[in-house]
Amino acid sequence: MIMRIFQIVTRPGKEEEFSNFFHEIAIPLMRGTKGIVLVFPGAAREDTPREFSFVMLWESLEALKAFVGEDFESPHIDPAEAELVESRSIKHYEFVE
């Protein structure tokens, strides 16, 4: 299994707008995505108000690629959120049980 950690930092002043997108669109989308075993969404905290993340556990690299394409190491974002996001990062790991 593949553990995927996706982190974003919002543009200043876009925290609330991104939070709405995160809770209303992104979380339900990821929870309903074929190939994801578990998803742990991380919302902003008071000390890091512009940071959000997802930790996802995928069945396999093939399942991940079926969702994001061959370029799975690039942190893709929905066009609807592009203007809200200042930076993003992604990391992949082999899951250890």
**CATH architectural grouping:** 2-Layer Sandwich
Q: In CATH, what is the class?
A: Alpha Beta
Helix and strand string, N-terminal first? EHEEHE
How many β strands by DSSP?
4
Helix percentage range: 25-40%
Protein name: ABM domain-containing protein
Pfam family, one: ABM
What does this structure look like?
This protein is α+β, with helices and mostly antiparallel strands and 97 residues long. The chain has one domain: 2-Layer Sandwich (Alpha-Beta Plaits). Helix content is 26%, strand content 35%. It has two helices and four strands. The chain has a four-stranded antiparallel sheet with strand order 2-3-1-4. The longest helix has 17 residues, at 15-31. The protein starts with a strand and ends with a strand. The model has no long low-confidence stretch (mean pLDDT 93).
SSE blueprint and pairings:
Blueprint: E1 2-10, H1 15-31, E2 36-42, E3 51-58, H2 61-68, E4 85-94
Antiparallel strand pairs: 1-3, 1-4, 2-3
